[in-house]
Amino acid sequence: MAISMETQLQTIFEDVVKTEVIEEAFSGMFMETAESERMKLISCLGAFKQYWSTLPQDSHEQCVKWIVRFIHGQHSPKRISFLYDCLAMAVETSLLPPRMVCQALVNSESLEWERTQLWALTFRLFRKIIGGVDYKGVRDLLKSVLDKIQTIPNVVSSAVVQQLLPAREVVEYILDRNACLLPAYLAVTEIRKLYPEGALSHWLLGSLISDFVDSFRPTARINSICGRCNLLPVVNNSGAICNSWKLDPTTLRFPLKGMLPYDKDLFEPQTGLLRYVLEQPYSRDMVCNMLGLNKQHKQRCAVLEDQLVDLVVYAMERSETEEQFDDGGTSQLLWQHLSSQLIFFVLFQFASFPHMVLSLHQKLAGRDLIKGRDHLMWVLLQFISGSIQKNALADFLPVMKLFDLLYPEKECIPVPDINKPQSTHSFAMTCIWIHLNRKAQSETNKLQIPIPHSLRLHHEFLQQSLRNKSLPMTDYKIALLCNAYSTNSECFTLPMGVLVETIYGNGSVRIPLPGTNCLAQGAITPLPMNLLDSLTVHAKMSLIHSIATRVIKLAAAKSAMALAPALVETYSRLLVYMEIESLGIKGFISQLLPNVFKSHAWGILHTLLEMFSYRMHHIQPHYRVQLLSHLHSLAAVPQTNQNQLHLCVESTALRLITALGSSEVQPQFTRFLSDPKTVLSAESEELNRALILTLARATHVTDFFTGSDSIQGTWCKDILQTIMNFTPHNWASHTLSCFPAPLQAFFKQNNVPQESRFNLKKNVEEEYRKWKSMTNENDIITHFSLQGSPPLFLCLLWKMLLETDHINQIGFRVLERIGARALVAHVRTFADFLVYEFSTSAGGQQLNKCIEILNDMVWKYNIVTLDRLILCLAMRSHEGNEAQVCYFIIQLLLLKPNDFRNRVSDFVKENAPEHWLQSDWHTKHMSYHKKYPEKLYFEGLAEQVSPPMPLQPHYLPIYFGNVCLRFLPVFDIVIHRFLELLPVSKSLETLLDHLGGLYKFHDRPVTYLYNTLHYYERHLRDRTNLKRKLVHAIMSSLKDNRTPGWCLSDTYLKFGMNPREDSAWIPDDTYYCKLIGRLVDTMAGKSPGPFPNCDWRFNEFPNPAAHALHVTCVELMALAVPGKEVGNALLNVVLKSQPLVPRENITAWMNAIGLVITALPEPYWIVLHDRIVSVISSPVLTSESESVGYPFQLLDFTACHQSYSEMYCSYVLALAHAVWHHSSIGQLSLIPKFMSEVLKPIVKTEFQLLYVYHLVGPFLQRFQQERTRCMLEVEHTHTHTHTHTHTHLVGPFLQRFQQERTRCMLEIGVAFYEMLAAVDQHCTHLSYMDPMCDFLYHIKYMFTGDSVKDQVEKIICSLRPAMKLRLRFITHITKMEPNANTANANANANSAQQQQQQQQQQHQQPSAVSSPAPQANPGPSSVPLSVAQ
Question: Tens of pLDDT along 11-37?
Fold first, then answer.
């Protein structure tokens, strides 16, 4: 029968500890000799060893636990001591694994502090054998020991303290950096889990823990951005979408990597940052991004709620000091914005309405803030009126509590002047009461909420107005009734009916629209913005729903009558309200457009596209790209092959493509990686070229390709490949030279053979001979309009006019038969043919004849529209002399005849761009079209042929467009083409002189200037006059429609805008300080601000800071000063002592410089690298003497600045952090190269190395996360398209992103070690080994894992012994045999302590040198889960 393990073990150990009767009788009088003790030990171990060898592996742990239980069951300290000696010997002779023994000891339930002798003996044994445990085991044991110490109560007898101390000694030994039992980084992680920030360690451990944690403060500092809590983003700027601004949604803290003791302010809730972002118009997407809020998941965010409440309180405080409200001032804009924010966040349940109202009551109680009460109630009414029908009354009743607080009047509040829009705010509380009362009556218990006495007059006025059936549009009575009764359909019908009838037209009056055979309903005056602003969101939603429904009905009925101009303009105005997005722009794109298309209501479709082109503002990019996709599919439908509609579709698509923001391109197009065809044109070469130009500009401005030389594996490769399959084409060398290098390489590899000029000329002559020789009319029409025949017909018409000055009727019929879509190819060939003709013309009389014919084709015969012909010419890829001829033709077309110049001049003179303020747009529009009618169906040709052909084409309605506005996006492209070719600079100046006024109507003039100056920085560097001319032309076009000071600074206007014959104006430091100060004041919300107030809903930029940033960058790029000098001057704003820069606000100035300099081209920001090099090479950091001070103090910018002890090196560090914090990941990707090629050769001292660590350390997280984000974006697309093809397409991208991220991290990681090796070689003594090693372990556990192990192993092996032994856990170097005994470990620890004492005598700051404890089983290294959480 098998004997159980317990029985056998009991036999072995009881034999050893049993005593004779006589020993028990004379207890304490018998003493064992050392020899007999040793014999007992040997016999016990011998017996145990024999038994242990027979045990299966899986029983080992159970066996050790039994032994510990047996020992702890003994009561004699002598026996326990003897048995512990047995265990120690078993471990020392490698019979038992030390980790297993230690775990069994510390986890024993019998190990209690009350058994003080057992406690002391156990931890002495623990201390003796732990040196043989591998480092991960030591980490786990540290946690267990700390947990065990936590069981000791706070109050114990002083008599037992001495017995408890061995446990402390164990912790001390584990944490001893000289013993080096484990990476200190793992130890601090366990300690911080048990004792988080602010928690005190157990009294038994004294200052041991706090001192150890404090030794990691330098490492935490190395990983912290200087002044991070004071850095702010510009909302909707490209940098604002990165991970730098993420906050924890429950605590509002920064997500910090690792369990390090960061500075206290980094653990604080970042309420200032969230509050600042919330204050900015159009910031809701950024708020969701910062807090990780998802519209699909309803999650209440208490911190967001608190900030919204605080923002309302702030608005109440502001209202107390403002005299007027409806003057477009700061207060009005703030309340308008608050209303929009509140609706969004409460609607998506990120904030709770009743909680917010109660919190508001609490914060306003006793404050006596009365002036803003009506505006507050107006904001609350917005939400209440729209949601009270779907929610319980109890959710809204807290508003009455707020009413009692804010409306303490005992007498009735008088009725305000209802001719003023502000009156709707005064009535808000009464409207709330009406909604609450109606809800109360509709509920089962039929509650009655009596009208408060103070509101009685208001209520009576509304009741009386409701009885009056004729409501005038001259005051705000209609708005008041809509707001009060929007939830009561009986009462609501009347006022809403009046509004609707005003804009629909009554059906009897009809008015003509431009073109022929186009009539519309007679209402031409839209609802004014003041009135729409005075309607609650609920009333606006009813109005927009009514309009959309009517349009869909008319489309379905195929009504011959066009929509009333008033309705179209009012609908456009309603789409500007973000708070009605679901019924507004979302409904427009996803419901209205598809329905209208399905009904084949081409007139309405044309109207909607016109609205999108000329009346939309701040439409989110995903809606714009969705529309672009619709347009490409629309272009393929046979019914759209009609001159006017085809022109409109192409013009709208061109606007959408060229208007894409640089930071929008990548996020939007990565959504279509699975099927790039949907966002590309299958047949329009011009649209695809425009997309490539946009892509080139976007990747340049965002530095996407920085440091890369190929598009292989990037998101744009498939897009470019698809374009080349659809519309193969080449680029002229002068255009290609402006592309980022990877794009240049792609087009050089994918070169397309071009048709020679000779062949083109020959083919045209051949076709012309056929034209002249063929006699049968039908054969001629069939031959020249046949699909697939050479697209040369416009060239033939040109030759007819050149030779006969006449086109016959057959020519007209062929044009009609070819159709709008196919005619584009003819225009393209014609553009090439023209260049050939003009190149070979003899000049003089013949040239004039050519020009005359060309203009006749555009203006007299209406064969091709000017904007299409210019676009085709501008997009051709001619080289050298031919390119100049092409641009010469463009110039002649635009300027030689008066036709276009007159149109531009009259349009600019008679119209203003602020359409939202106008009530007579339609009248001006019609008078312009009467003077300059648009002819899109070859009407001129029909009149000229003989005999003339009667032509009455049915025009689609035109509400906003004309040739001038259609030409604007083409003009943008023309300017860029002219900039690329040096010899045509003068021609460009002439064009700007004559046509620059058109930029008055550009919807993004500053952005266009910014993109142009940024993208062509290299080309414009030495062409300062042209730069100035471009800026002057665009800015002066707007001077009559903008408040002075809206854009360029007075100093620049005075000195920089005027051409100086002698020398260019070189600005001084004061100029740069004032320019940066303007941005600082704007971001600080200074009132009055540096820029005039405006309605941001219709502005080019979404908020004041975005406007300030872009105009600042435009002005800096426009200076006649090299980018390097401007960059240095910007750095000097804070690096030199400047009287205009206040000390107490220095980080705000650094923040502004970071924003500006990263938004400029590379030559402007790369100068920071030179400053860093000069600092690292400075005596302060190259000196090896200790006189400089403690480096971590020296580099703590905030503390030094507050104590007036900062140095230049800490200023540069803080500024570099501010700049890199705002940098795109593309700009940051230059850091690895900068480190390895520039910094590595010059880093020789500890101070230099620590400076580099401080510099780069905080940005490792972005390298890791943002490369991952690229992957996630692609993976997100991947998960939504489960197709084999998609996997095939996306696979390479994931791999590329993974490789890119790893490559950056590897390069930086390896560079850190290589610099360390150089410092190790150069320096005799190293004083700061611990912080350096801790930082390298931080990188291993948080970022790289084992990926750098192979590259750094050799480096670590070459380091001095003390450093090598510290870093051995990174490469698993063991300098001792696994079986080395613990005595050796202790000896090494002692010698290390002696070395440390010697060093401490030489250096004031603590340093340490270590030898290893033996590693029984180091095991494979990986990032432990307990660390990299």
Answer: 766 666 555 444 445 455 545 556 666
Phi, psi of 667 (to 5 degrees): -60, -35
Q: Sorting pLDDT into bands at 50, 70 and 90, what band is 859?
A: very high
Q: Degrees (nearest 5) of the Cα angle 190, 196, 198?
A: 145
Query: Looking at the DSSP assignment, which residues form a beta bridge with residue 520?
Result: 511, 562
Residues in the chain, how many?
1429
SS3 of residue 29 by DSSP: coil
CA of residue 1289 relative to chain centroid, distance: 25
Residue 1130 · residue 1158 · CB < 8 Å: no
- The 10s digit of each residue's pLDDT in 626-680 is 999 999 998 888 888 899 999 999 999 999 999 999 989 988 888 888 888 889 9
Residue 1408 is predicted with a pLDDT of 35
pLDDT in tens, 699-719: 999 888 877 777 776 788 889
Distance CA 1052, CA 746 (A): 41
SS3 684: coil
DSSP string, 1353-1389: HHHHHTS-HHHHHHTHHHHT--SS-TT--HHHHHHHH
Phi and psi (nearest 5°) for 583? Answer: -90, -20
Tell me the C-alpha distance between 76 and 82, whole Å: 10
Give 248-257's long-range contacts (Cβ < 8 A, gap of 24+). 249/291, 249/292, 249/293, 249/299, 249/301, 249/303, 249/304, 250/302, 250/303, 251/303, 252/303, 254/228, 256/223, 257/223, 257/1260, 257/1261, 257/1338, 257/1342, 257/1343
Q: Which residue has the tokens 């940066």?
A: 1076
Q: Is the pLDDT of residue 1378 over 70?
A: no
Q: How many CA atoms lie within 13 A of 577 on its CB side?
A: 28
pTM of the model: 0.90
Torsion of CA 1216, 1217, 1218, 1221, to 10 degrees: 120
Distance of alpha carbon 1060 from alpha carbon 715, whole angstroms: 47
SS3 520: strand
Give me the helices (H) in 981-1057, please.
Answer: 985-995, 1005-1015, 1017-1020, 1024-1037, 1050-1051
Q: Give every CB contact of residue 900 below 8 A, 6+ residues apart in sequence.
A: 866, 893, 894, 963
Report helix, strand or coil for 1144.
helix
Other C-beta atoms lying within 10 Å of the C-beta of residue 1029? 18
Is the pLDDT reported for residue 1419 higher than 80? no
What's the token pair of residue 161?
Answer: 């303290």
DSSP class of 349: T
